[in-house]
Specification:
Blueprint (H helix, E strand, L loop, with lengths): L1 H19 L7 H12 L12 H19 L2 H6 L1 H26 L5 H10 L5 H8 L5 H31 L4 H35 L5 H22 L3 H15 L6 H38 L5 H40 L12 H10 L5 H7 L15 H27 L8 H23 L11 H22 L6 H34 L5 H22 L4
Helix pairs in contact: 1-2, 1-12, 2-12, 3-10, 3-11, 3-12, 5-6, 5-8, 5-13, 6-8, 7-16, 9-10, 9-11, 10-11, 10-12, 12-16, 13-14, 13-16, 14-16, 17-18, 19-20
Length: 553
Amino acid sequence: MQTVYTVLILLLVVGGTRLAAQLIPLPLPLIQIAAGAALAWPSLGLHVGLDPELFMFLFIPPLLFADGWRMPKGEFWKMRWPILTLAFALVLFTVLGGGVFIHLLIPEIPWAAAFALAAVLSPTDALAVSAIAQDRLPRRLMHVLQGEALMNDASGLVAFKFAIAAAMTGTFSLMDASLSFLLVAVGGLACGVFISWLLGRIRGWMIRRGWDDPATHVVLMLLLPFAGYMIAEELGVSGILAAVAAGMMQSWADLLPRQTNTRLLNRSVWSMLEFAFNGVVFLLLGLQLPDILKSVAHHADDVMWRSSLLLFYVLAVFAVLLLLRFGWVWCYWKVSVRFEQWWGIELGGRSGEPVLRLSAISALGGVRGAVTLAGVLSVPLLLLDGSAFPQRDLIIFIATGVILVSLIAATIGLPILLRGLPAASNDQREREVQSVWRKTAAAAIHMLEGEEMPARDGADADEAARMAELKARLMAEYRHELDPAPDSQEARERARGLELADQALRIKALRAQRLELYRMRREHEIDDETMREVLGELDSQEAWVTSKAGRWV
């Protein structure tokens, strides 16, 4: 029962920190780490022992799957060159440069362990950056950071696993590691794509047989990242990349017919799970923090000196990672602009942009987050010979410190660097969405024009007129979508006002229906099953009305 109580407490605190974030002007991860540390205070005494293998399996696959699912594929393809260079070449550059610096700075950390620490520090967290920047980042840069965070999660953790294996066995071959990395990476991607495709075929077969219950399909999709990870690991390829590939494929599997309710439920469930998993990871970091501090400082005769030295290690490692990232991004943008000018190859650079400032923004935007934390907490406790993993507590402490410092630095530095930059414009996105609505409305009208309304045997003229009126009213609603968007700001404001008034009236009517439904249940005029069915329909209608009004923003 203690485990159940602990899980319930963690979930309750995760929800509480989300509310606290509305009042406290700090990034949510920092609040969650502080809450976890408070729970570990002796007076509360909450303690969670972590099995590294179980931790990696439980948290990494769903988080990477959700990242792959959420990533806009069109933007990923447009910005593929900067994304891939950041996600793979920069990761390798960070592992080599950061690993050498960490070993030279702290000789007690062996070479393999130093490279493992640098590898686990290479993944970035675009969600944390987005929350800090509050949609003020240039859109192209935000897409690059999102794509990079998706891919370097996988590449960084694969490199981390190779470094850990070298630390465990004491042997390492660059040629063998390079070939193994290629095979493991390609095999993991292929495994993830195949498993996601197979699940799509199974779901399609179920739908054709009428087995389209949303809950069943959502459960299957919840198991997908874990299945992909386990099968890939059993085959000796990357389970991490399998989870990413399965998530990216899920965008297409989502287009199965007659699955509207499944998609709505699936997105809601995954949003909740992603929030809960991210929150629990940072809470667990806070819970481990007091023990980590004790373990790295308990041998020191002078606690103040040891604490200062540890803080210096964290700041030095963070500074080197920041400089490596800044130098790489600045050089890439300079080179990409030259390539576009000389050979016309589109590499993602833009002449005339403030390259120095954007490079600094991108460097600070390399915030470390949940994936780094989940990876470093999975460092084994023991080597193969039964001895303790070298400097495990210090490695976890440095990674934890870098996560905290990167969050704080981004919170302070990004708003300063973003001053004066034009805010991200949504005009192009709005025009694209309006164009899609017009085209789909035209298709619906075309279908209705050729549709013969069903006539009941013996129907009179009045019934036929009512059927024709129904068809005409529906076509009128779709023709409204074909009206060109008003060009002037005044016309747009008028249209927006009418849309909001229509929305408000519809929502008031739906809420009146809901209140009447509650009254009938309180007075036992209907049972719970009837109330749930009608309430679900009213909620769906309100969600549709609310989303429809957003098209005139």
